[in-house]
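Support request, priority: normal
Reporter: lab tech (M.K.)
Component: structure prediction queue

Hi team, I submitted a job for Protein THEMIS2 isoform X1 from Camelus ferus yesterday, and the status page still shows it as pending. I've pasted the exact input below so you can check whether something in the sequence is tripping the parser. The sequence length should be 643 residues. Please let me know if I need to resubmit or if it's stuck on your end.
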Amino acid sequence: MEPMSLQDFVCSLDPASLPRVLQVCSGVYFQGSIYEISGNECCLSTGDLIKVTQVHLQKVVCENPETGQTMVLAPNFQGHFSLLTGPQSYGTLEELVSAANQSSKKLPICFMSTYKIATKARVVPEKQPLKLVAVEMHLGTCCARCVLDTGAQQVLLHLPLSQKGPFWELEPGTHRTLLQVLQDPALRDRLLTCPALPWCSQTLRPEYKIEAIMHMRRSVVKIPSTLEVDVEDVTASSQHIHFIQPLLLSEVLARGGPFPLPTEILEVPEGPPIFLSPWVGSLKKGRRLCIHGVASPSWRLLASTKGRKMPRHFMISGAYQGKLRRRPREFPTAYDLLGALKPGQSLRVVATKDYEGEGLENPGFTSLAMGDRLEVLRSDQALGAEDRDTDVLVCQRLSDEAEKEGEEECEGDAEHQEQIMLPLHTPGGFVEELSDGRRYSLQDLTVQFSLPCEVKVMVKDTNHPADPLTSFPGLRLEEKIVEPFLVVSLDSKPGMCFEIPPRWLDLTVAEEEEPPSQPPGSLPVATVEELTEAFYYRLRKLPTFESQAPPPRPPKSKGLSGQKKQGSKEKGIKSSQILELQEPSLLPKPKVQTWPKTTEDSSNLYSQTPGCKKGLRPTKPITQDLDNEHDYEEVVEKFPKTL
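Reply from support: The job had stalled in the queue. We restarted it manually and it finished. Here are the results:
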């Protein structure tokens, strides 16, 4: 096929013959590195191959050949066109008949008038086609016998040969729509007439948008047919050519198949890695990658290790088959207990630190000793310092007898139960009292318990031989994320699959025609991936997590300086009151004996010490002896001497 302009090729193209492969014979370039204009390709190089897949009519430019005026017709234009025999018009019917005789044309011939023709029978509209059947005498006048086809009937008219025009000769045939004219190659560049247009004659010039595939172009290329390039149809000699069309993994995911899909990696996104798995280093340009489908289920858990100075972070698939056992949770403050309290679930904890209650503020603010057992009941408010409402946790102190007799007997005996209040800013540590030795699957664990949750992996996932989670003393399951992943495998290691999130690791690949080589049976999938620290915190900043309201800051207790000032003020008042009743002494008094007196029977040495019964701890009396508070040297007199 000889080279032709792109416009001529598209106008003569039969849409049923698509796709067609074209080679650019002469390219066109725009200055300034412009590659696309309004989404259309504007630069083609000589030698480029284009695989045309679709052709769409954009508009039709209608031009008056006499004046050069143009107007644009929409593709859905409803007018009908007739074909003119030539650009010449005739002033009278006699000139029309004479021209037909000279060209040896036989009657009948078709013509039209650019003006209305009034006869006794009716008025012929302008541009209405008429058929001249014969020339004969009518009422003593030489007339042209014509037939007017109105669609419903045919009307016979006798027009004198002296009838003035101008008249235009028409090609015989039916009227054609716009699309019929454009689809007929014989009517290209021919003069046409249409009653719906203001001109007697016009030519039509269509403009198309071409959709094509080019080498290494990710999306479909859109080329205007008016682009001034010459092309050659090389479809017959290019059957073996495969057009490489890059795809993103996100596009493969959106397309939804077909799977398995053999591909080749064309480009790996730049940036720091997000996984610390061994397969990350194998994702290189030129490696073959087989996409097996969308991973199921679509949810993942973020987990961090416990018991190490530098925690490691993992993403655990919902398909993880290992067995997990719950571990006691640790709570640094009472406020953390409030966050872990769930309706319908019992929460029992053991104090891990001594805590001296704020009895001066409220007698209900109880002290705690290490080892005290509590059951968290609810949150409430109590009157605190400066007569202000303070958020507290209402807990029930559990005695050792309750642990031995059982929970049912303790609930029935209300006399042995004591309710206490802990301000939310209580700094004492707590650990969950847990007696659950059951082994859970990951799915059951997330359904029955809320996150975060601390667990120990007891049995590793059998489908993942390199499961690293069993080597850690504990895991903290942080958050659940829902994100589609693709199950893929490398051609170099077809026996092991792993999951890639296109949202964060969007590889550029190209489809391959060769089917992938797969071992028989189902392939194991790595269900645990270690995350880099940067990517882990990036996941924690996702909108799904940001939409969760942050916990309110716990109420602040009185500052240390305020406590010191208030304490010193109270001590000063007490000291002045006591010193008024006592004689001033220059030397410090000997320390008061606080141990019990020794008796003859040493076995009763501790019998005189008050029993330290677990329960409400008595606060220190306000009227405590000044000498019992401290044993500091009196330097009041020595201080002036040093001056």
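The CA atoms of residues 143 and 160 lie 4 Å apart. The first strand starts at residue 4 and ends at 5. Let us know if anything else looks off. Ticket resolved.
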